[in-house]
Queue: 2 jobs
Job 1
Amino acid sequence: MASDHIVTSYDEELTELKSKVSEMGGLAEAQLENALEAMQRRDTEIASRTIEADFRVDNLEQEIDQFVVQLLALRQPMASDLREIIVALKISSDLERIADYATNVAKRTMTLAHSPQVRPAHAIPRMARLALTMINDVLDSYADRDTQKAIAVWHRDEELDEMYTSLFRELLTYMMEDARSISSCTHLLFIAKNIERVGDHATNIAEYVYYLVEGKPLLQSRPKGGENEYERLDLPKSQA
Amino acid sequence: MASDHIVTSYDEELTELKSKVSEMGGLAEAQLENALEAMQRRDTEIASRTIEADFRVDNLEQEIDQFVVQLLALRQPMASDLREIIVALKISSDLERIADYATNVAKRTMTLAHSPQVRPAHAIPRMARLALTMINDVLDSYADRDTQKAIAVWHRDEELDEMYTSLFRELLTYMMEDARSISSCTHLLFIAKNIERVGDHATNIAEYVYYLVEGKPLLQSRPKGGENEYERLDLPKSQA
């Protein structure tokens, strides 16, 4: 009986861990969604609420970290339980970074809201929607242990990287055409970079989900888009 | 006898884990040093060697991850040994990010080497030296279990953030003054941001060292510099 009781309670702890990670995922996703909505609407109210709420994600990460250490110490897990615990630790660290990028977008939105609007406002929302879909899908893949969905997220990162590279060039052109847009465009560049990084963290999570379910790493070589960002962008001839 | 043997071998494994983390730290530090030297000398040879060597850091991270899972499964560690293992996992993930930033600096250097030189080449090396000192010190603090040194690194991050903020404004001014510098300045902005992020990761490592030695988190509130980056930089009146 006693032993039975302990086993059940251990299972409950693993379920609690999984649900804490999902909760943190939902929170990180909501933070990014709010930051991006604030940016599109130039709404400093939403931006400032997003910045203030970041501590909730940090707190959840700390809770998960402590819970993991406690589980490792008291339960001395093996095999798939151990993977469950290690993966929770890894995913929570990626989610914390995603929420950090959301905060950064919200902070830059506070600035941008008081500056003249720059043209490429449509390309960033497109990147944002893709990044949000990736987070949503990768969290589903974690909850459902769905490796096919995880692999699909992993592949979509290339698309996001390509959108970023093209936006990077577009923004540089705007800056060259109008010096008054430089400050705003620079913030937009960093916002786009933040969204591109969110995609990288969603890809990391996809790899952890695969490892969690299959017990081995996802061995395909990672799609590496966005390299063109490093090409030199020459000044348009009219301004050379 | 048998039990004695197992105990010794477990200690050896923990020592090996610690030395793997230090080795990875040395490698990440060397990668950053090379990337920054390449940037200063506009040396595409060093930059390209740095980019190629990044896989060695990634491989070490994977080795550490696997070693950690193996130690947790086979040794079922408690208390301070468990902290040692968890902290190794956390630090290696920060070191991997630091090496990634070094690769990013090297890639941008490949581009910058073919562009006209931009003025603020002195401010970035200053930031770079500080970031390298922080990494070097925090790795020493890990090797020597020296919390005082770790706390000192933690405090220096504020200085790095302030240097970044001031450089950010300087670079924006250059871009406004000369549209031909926009592409190069943008790469320099991202390089500076990468160095600033390296400081954040050194700060994370400092926190892990403190937790490792003291068994409790460093509870001071983290210095938050660099916020001025988000202020609006107005166009100089002469160009408005």
Job 2
Amino acid sequence: MNIEYVKPQDIERRSFEIIAQELGGREIPEEQRPIVMRCIHTSADFDYYENLYFSPDAVKIAHAAIKSGCTFVTDTNMALSGINKAALSRHGCDAVCFMADPEIAETAKRAGTTRASASVDRAAMLGKPVIFACGNAPTALLRLCDHIREGTFRPALVIGVPVGFVNVVQSKVLLIDSGIPCIVARGRKGGSNIAAAICNALLYQMDAL
Amino acid sequence: MNIEYVKPQDIERRSFEIIAQELGGREIPEEQRPIVMRCIHTSADFDYYENLYFSPDAVKIAHAAIKSGCTFVTDTNMALSGINKAALSRHGCDAVCFMADPEIAETAKRAGTTRASASVDRAAMLGKPVIFACGNAPTALLRLCDHIREGTFRPALVIGVPVGFVNVVQSKVLLIDSGIPCIVARGRKGGSNIAAAICNALLYQMDAL
């Protein structure tokens, strides 16, 4: 068995070299490239070359939000746990997830909705710039679209990468059509790992600026 | 946009119906089916129908370990955060991840190895039945294979689903060849989400027994 010896600190760099090599000459706009590559890195799934949608100036808008010290709101504790806390802190940002709050469970139960939907209502009350990263629940995206339409909550950017089979594809189309700045994995794919990867890619890009 | 109305508590059931429908008549051994389906559910990636390998009696062995109140050890905090804590507690099991321990970082730095590898050495000292779930670092699997070969640590079951490009494929082949009971996603794919999905599927199966 041919094990390639790579120093621990070089494994990520070597992985990105391999991904770049396999992408070959495929064109990706410069500012989107690290995000596409990090999604492939986290999933070993080259579909993310095809399915990622960026609204106009999405990356620039994300960077401005990070510069303003925004809060990343996730729809799972898994995504929250995947966001690099040192990178957040370098840029004066923080990250929260409301899904495990007992109060959210109570509100959702009373309203006959999901905790993810109730979490969006909670995020709307933060009163500061938000990057909303949805890697799990299309119901969160649908609720976000309600808020955007009614003018009650407008995140600086929405990362719309829920995964699955029930209303996932539709929720992403609605999000794109809402006109909000967004980065979306079209189709069924996505996940908490993809949501965290996109947050981290945006933060690491700022390190390099 | 055609949004399907599904009650929150029915979304998962409906998703599994869709997955079963799309799998059509494809044959999966009965005890492996919920695991394969939960991997597809968490990734929307039907490759997991093709790439999951189960060593002989892997599911039965996992259930026996759970029955004995084993500890799930993960190689990322993301995987740890994805394991259902209520399900763990129903079966008298627990879950840990050593990756963020300052002591592990120190040991790894001294040894010129990865934190994942040092975490395996730490897990070897638990002195109780372990299900080791690796969703990220092939270096953890390689270190596990050393322990298995030398007889210094033998988990009840290894969930070998690291993701990526450097030594990932090789580490999985070595794991399978070691003869340890294992569930493996062959090839490059896997991830913390897949590791957590397999742990949860095994726990939920026990609920249904």
